[in-house]
Design brief:
Length: 187
């Protein structure tokens, strides 16, 4: 094991032991690893075998795979920035409607988030989505008419509407431009 990994492992094991208020002796009893070996590991003077690491993770009730990775402290909390010009846009759906995809690609089918911009009288007609699918729409500007399976509702600025989307549905700008946030959730 290289020095960096040994030092990281030593720090993580010691932190885990201390956070559980365990002495070296107590951890030795719980894990079956000798007190002297534990001390050497925590000082990064010894490289434990996989079997010893397994025993320690079980005794401390910690994740085996997380012991050696970079960990959350070494990874930036900001995972991704997508600049305005890079945000995917759907132009082929609807008339007078621009759809910006805000959700991550890996969430498709679970939770999808869209920024909808409508020109005056723009419309977004949709076929039925998968069974149990719901849409949650919040209006930021304009007035929108939402129709799901033939039932319509006028939605104004600040209003939120939730409706089934596993039936034909549409969103229409009612005589003026409008903007809304659409969150689509699966069943």
């Amino acid at each position: 094991m290289n020095d960096d990994i040994s030092a990281r492992l030593a720090t993580r094991l010691k932190e885990a032991r201390k956070s559980r208020s365990l002495s070296l002796e107590a951890l030795a009893r719980l894990s079956g690893v000798s007190r002297s070996m534990l001390s050497q590991i925590e000082r990064a003077e010894s490289s434990p075998t996989v079997a010893i690491l397994w025993n320690l993770t079980q005794a401390l009730n910690i994740d085996f795979s997380g012991l050696l990775d970079g960990g959350p402290k070494e990874r930036s909390p900001i995972r991704e920035v997508i600049r305005a010009g890079q945000t995917p846009v759907i132009h082929s759906q609807g008339q007078g409607c621009r759809i910006r995809i805000l959700s991550a690609p890996e969430t498709v089918g679970e939770t999808e988030i869209y920024d909808l911009e409508f020109e005056a009288d723009g419309v977004l007609d949709s076929e039925a989505h998968r069974s149990g699918c719901m849409e949650n729409l919040t209006v930021f500007s304009g007035t929108l008419l939402v129709t799901s399976d033939g039932v319509s509702e006028v939605v104004n600025v600040g209003d939120t509407i939730r409706y089934v989307a596993d039936r034909p549905h549409s969103i229409r700008a009612d005589g003026q431009a409008g903007r809304a946030l659409l969150i689509v959730t699966g069943s």
